[in-house]
Amino acid sequence: MKKTSEQLFQSRLKENETIHWYGQPAGGLLIREKDLLLIPGSIILVGFAGLMNVIAFYFYNSLLLQVFAVGVSALAVYLGLFRFLADIRRRRRIHYCVTNFRVMMCSGRRQTLRTLPLKNIERMDLAEEKNGRGHISLGNTNPLWAWLFGQFMLSSEHLPGFENIDHAREVFQLIEQLKRKNVSGELINTVKQIEFNEN
Predict the structure, then answer these.
(1) How many domains does the chain have?
(2) How far apart are CA 40 and CA 44, in angstroms?
(3) Are 66 and 147 contained in the same domain?
(4) Measured between alpha carbons, how far is 151 from 26 in angstroms, rounded to an integer?
(5) Is 85 in the same domain as 103?
(6) What value does the mean pLDDT of the chain take?
(7) What pLDDT is recorded for position 158?
(8) Which candidate in 48, 66, 79, 135 could, as Cys together with 42 as Cys, close a disulfide (CB 3.0–4.6 Å)?
């Protein structure tokens, strides 16, 4: 039985930790800015691949040309169809969660858990669309990657951010609010510890 986002994270909570938000990237077919170039390009590539196959298999009996033609055909099919299916499948396996202590992400077939404590978030950026959907980057991750390609790329961050989530601004503001509370609570505990040591 497939677990919901809440069920996935509920069993992984620490003591005194509570869930404030959970969700997944938007599902279904997503057409992004990069597709404005890739879709016409893939159509041209399909035509070119078809021509290459005719030349390779009917006019020239060159093994190298045939291998090249098959490779171009496979690339054309991937750009035109399979990458959309792979992206839908990838997003379906991603789950996000925000608690009073940290942000979490479960992803992949094995639902690998990645976490980032709120106190360790030095920088946050929001890339929002008109429909309220958007990307939240955490740390030094470039938010343009998620906006252009639909996922965080070339990132050294352990948990780069949330991609394609609904109500992105509300989630962004929630993380900021919880982060401030977390930092304030740590400062109070530090002051109390100092006063206790002095006494």
Answers:
(1) 2
(2) 6
(3) no
(4) 12
(5) no
(6) 77
(7) 57
(8) 79
Task: With beta carbons less than 8 A apart as the criterion, state whether 162 and 127 touch.
Answer: no
Residue 66 lies in a domain: yes
Name the phi and psi angles at 18, rounded to 5: -130, 150
Q: Checking DSSP bridges between strand 102-107 and strand 134-138, what pairing results, if any?
A: unpaired
Q: CB atoms < 10 A from the CB of 43, how many?
A: 13
Bridge partners of 22, per DSSP, are 97
* pTM, full prediction: 0.69
Domain range for residue 184? 5-25+99-198
Side-chain-facing half-sphere of 173: CA atoms under 13 Å: 5
For residues 38, 41, 43, 48, the Cα torsion angle rounded to the nearest 10 degrees is -140
**Sequence-distant (≥ 6) Cβ neighbours of residue 186 within 8 angstroms:** 119
Residue 30 lies in a domain: no
pLDDT at 194 over 50: no
**Residue 182: per-residue pLDDT:** 74
Give the SS3 label for residue 103. strand
**Coil vs helix vs strand at 110:** coil
Residue pair 145/153 in contact (Cβ under 8 Å)? The answer is yes
Q: How far apart are CA 34 and CA 169, in angstroms?
A: 23
- Report pLDDT for 190: 46
